[in-house]
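The pair is quoted verbatim as follows:
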Amino acid sequence: MKKIFGILFFCLFYGCGSVYQITPLQDFSFENGKKIIESNLKNSSVLLEIAQDNYNTITPLLVKVLAKSQNPIVFDSNNITAYQEGKIFKVLDSHQILHSNINFTNSLRAFNIPIPSLPINYYYPNIFYSPFFGFGFGRNYGISDDYFREIEYSSSILFAHYLKKTTLKNDIFSGGFVAIVLQDAIEGKIYIKVQIGEEIHEVGFFLQSQQK
């Protein structure tokens, strides 16, 4: 009963999000369960990896972006843009990950990055404010500190693997994870653009609603 009570409050204040099946529009291959899309232009190449078949907008979409370039170009999350029908979605930088109050455990596990489970003892809600998703839960009342340790731990693991400033080379792919806030996404096509110097790689996905 306590768990159900907590989930209801979570949906009320934090939002339960919308669930979509996410499918690449381009040809892709599989590697250890991950979908890999490759884009090649004259002077650069990009690999984009996605691990989720179904995506819930309650958390950012986690993708792994790797690139290489014939020219030494500095590459980070500022080189990545996501949009849908003219709406630009926020791409978090590595420091925002640490302060997002978001639990990335399931997203990381989908990429085969192990995150040990921590016990969650009880679920009475308190409210905090996230700069990316609005109101959610906070400490002191309700959810045990184990839950927040899981948030902190998953955020730290993601930060270690996140895309930070990297000088690209022409003989090896470099990069890392990026988290894209798709809170107001709707069913339909969505695109991720990766800019490498003057070249722009664009990868598309189709979001199909799983709501009944």
Notes: Helices lie at 2-13, 94-98, 105-110, 145-161. Residues 1-14, 122-129, 135-142 have pLDDT under 50 and may be disordered.
